[in-house]
Write a structure and sequence with these properties.
With 304 residues, the chain is mainly alpha-helical. The protein has one domain (2-92, 99-303). The chain is 75% helix and 6% strand. The protein is built from 15 helices and 2 strands. It has helices spanning 2-20, 26-32, 36-44, 48-55, 59-64, 68-88, 91-97, 99-121, 126-143, 154-169, 175-181, 185-193, 197-224, 226-244, 273-303; strands at 248-255, 258-266. The chain has a two-stranded antiparallel ribbon with strand order 1-2. It is globular, with a radius of gyration of 20 Å. This is DUF368 domain-containing protein.
Length: 304
C-alpha cells in the first residue's frame, strides 16, 4: 500500500517536472504514465454530493467521497517537483542555457507514449486517419499560435483560467503556454505573487469551472467515444512534437524579468556534442516510457 502511494507520488513528480517545461503539459505526462483516467475521475469526485455534505457538515462524506488517496500523493509529488526543478535544479534556466538535451528528453517521452498508444487505437479504417489528422492539425495550430491583445476585464480573467486549466488537462497542450497566447501570463503571475485578489479570485473561479466542466466533458468523451478520443489525443501529441523538437530557432519574451519561450522554428541540426547529448536524452526518454509500459503490461498479465 505504501509502495503504491510512493509510486503515485513519483508520477506526480513527473507531472510537476513537465509543467515546469514550456510547451509540455502535466496532462501529457499523466497520459504517458497511465493515470489520466484516474486523474479525471478524482477531479470528478468533487461533485454535488460532496458539496451537499459540506453544507450538512457531514465530515465523514466530505473526507471519504473525494479520491484523496489518489490526489494527495500525486499533489505531494507534483509540488515537490515544482520546488525541486525551480530551487534545486533550475529547469527553467537550463531550458534557456541548454534547451537541446532537456527538450530531447521530453521529445523521447512523448514519442514513446505515441508508440505505446497507437496499437490500442489504430485500425485499418478512415476513422483512424480522420481523427489522427484532426488531432495533429489542432495540436500544431495551438503550439504555433501567437500572442493576441486581450482585455483585462474580470470576465476575461475568468475565461483565461477556464481555458488554461482545460488545456492543462488535455494531453499535448500546456496551460502556461495558453496564458501566454492570451497575453495573460504576466497578469496572472503578478496577481498571484502580489496577492492581488481582484486577479486571483476570478482566475480561481475560471480554474474551478474548467476542472468541473471540462473534466466531466472529457471523461464522457472517453466513456462513449473512447477510440476516436484516443486517436484525437494521439494526434495532438504528434502535433505538439513540432514545438518539443529539441533543435529550434527559439524566440523568447520577457515576463517579470525572465525569458519565456514564445515562438520557435524547427531546424535540422549539425552534428556536434550538443546534438549527440540531445539524441541520447531522446533515447533515454523513449526507453523510460517503453520500460514503464512493459512493466505495466507484465504486472497486468501477472494479475491474471
Amino acid at each position: 500500500m505504501l509502495a503504491d502511494k510512493f509510486i503515485l507520488a513519483l508520477k506526480g513528480f513527473c507531472m510537476g517536472a513537465a509543467d515546469v517545461v514550456p510547451g509540455v503539459s502535466g496532462g501529457t505526462m499523466a497520459f504517458i504514465l497511465g493515470i489520466y483516467k484516474s486523474l479525471l475521475d478524482a477531479i470528478r469526485s468533487f461533485d454535488q454530493v460532496w458539496l451537499q455534505a459540506i453544507i450538512r457538515l457531514d465530515i465523514k462524506t466530505v473526507w471519504q467521497r473525494p479520491h484523496f488517496g489518489f490526489l494527495l500523493p500525486l499533489l505531494i509529488g507534483l509540488f515537490a517537483a515544482v520546488l525541486f526543478f525551480t530551487r534545486v535544479i533550475p529547469l527553467p534556466t537550463l531550458l534557456n542555457t541548454h534547451p537541446e538535451p532537456i527538450y530531447g528528453l521530453f521529445f523521447g517521452l512523448i514519442v514513446g507514449s505515441i508508440f505505446t498508444l497507437l496499437p490500442t487505437a489504430v485500425k485499418k479504417d478512415w476513422a483512424t486517419v480522420i481523427f489522427l489528422l484532426l488531432g495533429t492539425i489542432v495540436g500544431w495550430l495551438v503550439v504555433n499560435l501567437i500572442p493576441v491583445d486581450t482585455p483585462d476585464a474580470m470576465w476575461f480573467i475568468v475565461f483565461s483560467g477556464f481555458v488554461a486549466i482545460s488545456a492543462m488537462l488535455l494531453p499535448g497542450i500546456s496551460g502556461s503556454f495558453i496564458l501566454l497566447i492570451l497575453n495573460k501570463y504576466e497578469t496572472i503571475l503578478n496577481g498571484i505573487s502580489h496577492f492581488n485578489f481582484s486577479i486571483i479570485i476570478p482566475f480561481g473561479v475560471g480554474v474551478l469551472l474548467g476542472l468541473v466542466l471540462f473534466s466531466r466533458f472529457f471523461d464522457w468523451l472517453l466513456e462513449h467515444f473512447y477510440r476516436p478520443t484516443l486517436l484525437f489525443i494521439i494526434g495532438i501529441l504528434i502535433g505538439s512534437l513540432w514545438r518539443i523538437w529539441p533543435f529550434q530557432e527559439r524566440h523568447y519574451v520577457m515576463v517579470r524579468e525572465k525569458a519565456r519561450l514564445m515562438e520557435s522554428t524547427p531546424l535540422w541540426p549539425d552534428f556536434n556534442a550538443t546534438t549527440g547529448l540531445a539524441l541520447l536524452m531522446m533515447l533515454l526518454g523513449l526507453v523510460i516510457v517503453l520500460g514503464i509500459h512493459g512493466v505495466a503490461r507484465w504486472k497486468k498479465g501477472e494479475r491474471r
